[in-house]
């Protein structure tokens, strides 16, 4: 069940990123911003799904970096990784893997470092294998995240990367708050009254606003198209009124005024002009 | 109306717009929308912005999420008991074990924080959490860019308006 979900997840992420990359008409800032990391992300997405052996070896080495002392782990790791592949149904190589699993059991007794692992392995064999499979998956995803977050490429170790990611998310959220504060402060005279805005009478108001706002040529249009075609949905109601209100046009202020301050009757007369 | 309330409303609108812009709904987008629906201002907004049919879909998805959340909790309880049993067995190689234990503890702390940050992160297992965070970061970047250009546009236009009125 986990595997199915994971395949769906991969599919989903690929779809999302593909839709984000696809046609940026305007060469504007954030599509360029999106294109580069998204391309890399797509590239990276392709590689873990295939899971060739040497790459898994690297991943396993990544896993081993967490404990500070790495002794004879490299010897046992490729063998262990092969046995792990048996668990992952995505892997195509199955027969040789089974053999290596028996080998790994034999090896576990030979190497001194593995002495500890043999104990754990004997205690909960399937558990440790499943855990290792989990770790592989998580590390693959962490690689993707590393590509996405700037400045994470050089950091090794899950904890530090997670740290960077958390900082990034927090900074982005703070930026959103700050920008919304600026937006709110830009029109101090306008009264945003949401309940009235969406009352029954204003149903037609929204439609009129929508029609008025689609036509003017926009410098933002390229950006919005680049962002996703998802924004322009056929039924027209959802995000349009918000983002549509923010399109650059000579009539910019008036649709927004009429949207935001339904109370003032003077403004509501203006939008038919757009 | 003071700025704080306006800012909250603007942010709410922006969040809902961002979440509803995803055609293939992810866990965080659904969580954002259901969170928005909980506060009284948000219900009206969500109803009007998103429309009733997609709300039904959202309901289904959130029901699935709730059952999945329960499953995740059960798994966690099981895992915790297993780990407790394991820890009593761990004896030798103190240095190596201490290092791994410390590293794991750090990672766990970070994942807890990340779960709090990403909307809907608490009801997702660790593996999908990373995928959700990836997606969320992308959308946040886009949102920041769009809002920034909006603010610039309004400021430019306001500047023009002021100039015109001065003239």
From TrEMBL, chain A:
Region (Disordered): 68-109
Top-level taxon of the source organism: Eukaryota
CDD domains to which the protein is assigned, alphabetical: bHLH_AtBPE_like (cd18919)
Key words, A-Z: Nucleus, Transcription, Transcription regulation
Localization of this protein: Nucleus
InterPro entries assigned to the protein according to its UniProt record, in alphabetical order: bHLH_dom, bHLH_ZIP_TF, HLH_DNA-bd_sf
Biased composition (Basic residues): 83-99
Pfam families per record: HLH (PF00010)
Coiled coil: none
Tagged with keyword Transcription regulation: yes
Keyword Transcription regulation on entry: yes
Basic and acidic residues composition bias: residue spans: 100-109
First-listed, main subcellular location of the protein, grouped into a coarse class: nucleus
BHLH domain: residues covered: 122-172
Protein name according to UniProt: Transcription factor bHLH48-like protein
UniProt source species: Tanacetum coccineum
From TrEMBL, chain B:
Subcellular localization, as worded in the UniProt entry: Nucleus
Cross-referenced InterPro entries: bHLH_AtIBH1-like (IPR044549), HLH_DNA-bd_sf (IPR036638), IBH1-like (IPR044660), IBH1_N (IPR059002)
Pfam families linked: IBH1_N
First-listed, main subcellular location of the protein, grouped into a coarse class: nucleus
Domain IBH1-like N-terminal: residue ranges: 2-38
Keywords associated with the record: Nucleus, Transcription, Transcription regulation
Protein name in the entry: Transcription factor IBH1-like protein 1
């Amino acid at each position: 069940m986990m595997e199915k979900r994971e395949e769906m997840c991969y599919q989903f992420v690929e779809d999302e990123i593909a839709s984000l990359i696809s046609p940026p008409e305007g060469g504007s800032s954030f599509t360029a911003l999106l294109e580069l990391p998204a391309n890399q992300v797509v590239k990276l997405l392709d590689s873990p799904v295939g899971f060739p052996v040497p790459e898994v070896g690297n991943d396993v080495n990544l896993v081993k970096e967490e404990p500070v002392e790495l002794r004879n782990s490299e010897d046992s790791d490729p063998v262990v990784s092969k046995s792990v592949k048996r668990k992952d149904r995505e892997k195509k190589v199955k027969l040789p893997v089974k053999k290596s699993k028996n080998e790994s059991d034999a090896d576990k007794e030979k190497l001194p470092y593995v002495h500890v692992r043999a104990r754990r392995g004997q205690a909960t064999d399937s558990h440790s294998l499943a855990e290792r499979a989990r770790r592989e998956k998580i590390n693959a995803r962490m690689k993707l995240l590393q590509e996405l977050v700037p400045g994470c490429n050089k950091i090794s170790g899950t904890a530090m990367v997670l740290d960077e990611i958390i900082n990034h998310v927090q900074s982005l959220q703070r930026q959103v708050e700050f920008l919304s504060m600026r937006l709110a402060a830009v029109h101090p005279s306008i009264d945003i009254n949401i309940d009235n805005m969406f009352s029954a009478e204003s149903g037609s108001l929204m439609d009129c606003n929508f029609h008025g706002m689609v036509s003017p040529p926009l410098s933002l249009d390229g950006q919005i198209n680049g962002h996703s075609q998802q924004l322009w949905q056929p039924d027209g109601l959802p995000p349009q009124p918000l983002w549509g209100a923010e399109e650059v046009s000579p009539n910019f202020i008036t649709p927004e005024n009429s949207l935001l301050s339904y109370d003032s009757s003077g403004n509501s007369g203006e939008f038919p002009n757009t | 109306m003071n700025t704080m309330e306006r800012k909250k409303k603007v942010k709410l609108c922006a969040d809902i717009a961002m979440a509803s812009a995803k055609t293939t709904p992810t866990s965080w987008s659904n969580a954002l929308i259901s969170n928005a629906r909980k506060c009284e201002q948000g219900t009206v907004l969500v109803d009007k912005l998103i429309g009733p049919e997609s709300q039904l879909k959202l309901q289904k998805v959130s029901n699935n999420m709730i059952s999945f959340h329960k499953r995740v909790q059960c798994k966690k309880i099981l895992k915790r008991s297993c780990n407790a049993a394991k820890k009593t067995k761990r004896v030798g190689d103190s240095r190596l074990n201490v290092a791994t234990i410390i590293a794991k503890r750090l990672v766990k702390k970070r994942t807890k924080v990340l779960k709090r940050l990403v909307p809907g992160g608490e009801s997702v297992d660790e593996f999908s959490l990373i995928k959700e965070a990836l997606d969320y970061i992308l959308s946040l970047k886009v949102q920041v860019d769009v809002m920034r250009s909006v603010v610039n546009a309004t400021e430019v236009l306001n500047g023009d308006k002021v100039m015109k009125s001065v003239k």
